[in-house]
Structure formats: structure tokens, C-alpha cells
Amino acid sequence: MLLISCPNCGSRDETEFHYGGQAHVPYPENPNELNDREWAEFLFYRDNTKGIFAERWLHSTGCRQWFNMLRDTVSYDIQAVYPMGAPRPAAVASPAPESGTASLAADSTTTGNSAPSIAGTSTSATSTNASSTTAPEGATK
Fold this sequence. Notes:
6 strands; two-stranded antiparallel ribbon
């Protein structure tokens, strides 16, 4: 569980807060002049950054005030908390984004570089007679 520092109330449990999306998205100057495509881009198109990301948060069960936060989306490390309207502070360098635990081996299925080996399997039927096939010991027919 995250411990989020509200600029008005101090540190509280993350269950008291609600995520409000990307911070610093300016409202259109003339929204009535936007076509459908431009309006959709304003409403729905947001950055999806891996690493440091500026977010809006609401302290919904406390002071009910909005604030901004710089948070690392990989490690969940909170870099800064600052009030609405304040400029975005400079981010502290974060660890390399490729510091996960996935295997980078050439035969790894997580990297998609090659398929698993099927050298010990056969796809051809050698006999169609059911009585000539034997099941492993303990198996049922």
C-alpha cells in the first residue's frame, strides 16, 4: 500500500485518494470551435509514460482537494507532491526501466525470440490400431 503525502493533510493511506489522470493538460481555449476529432483527442488521448509521470490526485476522504504528484510508474516511487497550478518540478533520475526479472535468454518465451523446443514430440500417427498403443502406467483408457 502507498503512503501519499497530501499537501494539506499530511501523509495518509492510498485508500483515501482517487487518481485523476494526467496532470498539466490544458483546457482548450475555444472548446466550441473544436471538431469531433480534436475534442476526442482532448478528452481521451493521454501520455502513457513508463517512468516519471505527472498525475492529478484527489484526497477524497480528507480535505477533498486536488493536487499534483510526480510518480514513477515502474517503481511507484513518489518523487514530488505539489499544489494545483504550480509548475511541474524537475524529476529525480529513476532506475533503468529494464530492471525487471524477465529472462532475456535467446530461447525465452517472454522475449518472443524463439519458440519452445519440440524435438522430442511427434505429430505423425504411427498406428491407427488402438490396441497397439500403450498408455503410461497408472493412466486410464
